[in-house]
Amino acid sequence: MAVDNLIHYAHTRGVTTLTLDSPANRNALSSALVGELAERLTRAEKDRDVRAVLLTHTGGTFCAGADLRSPPHPDALVALLRQVVELRKPVVARVDGHVRAGGLGLLGACDVSAASNRSTFAFTEVRIGVAPAVISLPLLPRTDPRAVARYYLTGEKFDAVEAARTGLVTAAGEDVDEILAPVVDGLRRSSPQALAETKRLLTVKVLEAFDRDAEALTALSARLFASDPAREGMTAFLERRDPAWVL
Fold it and tell me: Which residues share a beta bridge with 54?
């Protein structure tokens, strides 16, 4: 069982709040954080008092992507993303900061999400020599394909308004808690059975993508992360320099 020191837990009136709290790596997806988050989600699934899960963060970053010093195995990340999608309780993301790379996959797996105007987003995989492979499983069925093509290929940073326009998040605005207040209230007023079955209807296409593509994308991710270009890209990132291929 994971040590409970990277995820804060709180429960109020049917809503369990899970707070990513790994400031040393800007809430990056380390093997430890992925394991602990999976454990917390499992507990929420089994708890009959939990109507919904609110996923949020400490600090100025929701999630910086995979932890390059202690990355989770691609299989573990696939399992976590699928767990969020399949959870019988709605999972709501609250973003008041930056989201990068693998963190966007976690965001895309959630059922509802809101971001403050101070939030920024970027698919930075291409800049370190890899591809947004595994995170495509929840993202591609839910986002605008032309926008995703641009941001996947360039690694550009974009804002919360653009994230909402492309379907990456549900809504954006000045006060993320104000945006989420009616969402949380609605979930509290809803039947647990109805929520579970409605979520099942909404996630059919996403789960089809997992069933069809998870094995191939896991293999692609593992191959790319073990490649020479990726080693150069990750080393350059950690050394705060441009990788060798930059013109």
Answer: 17, 92
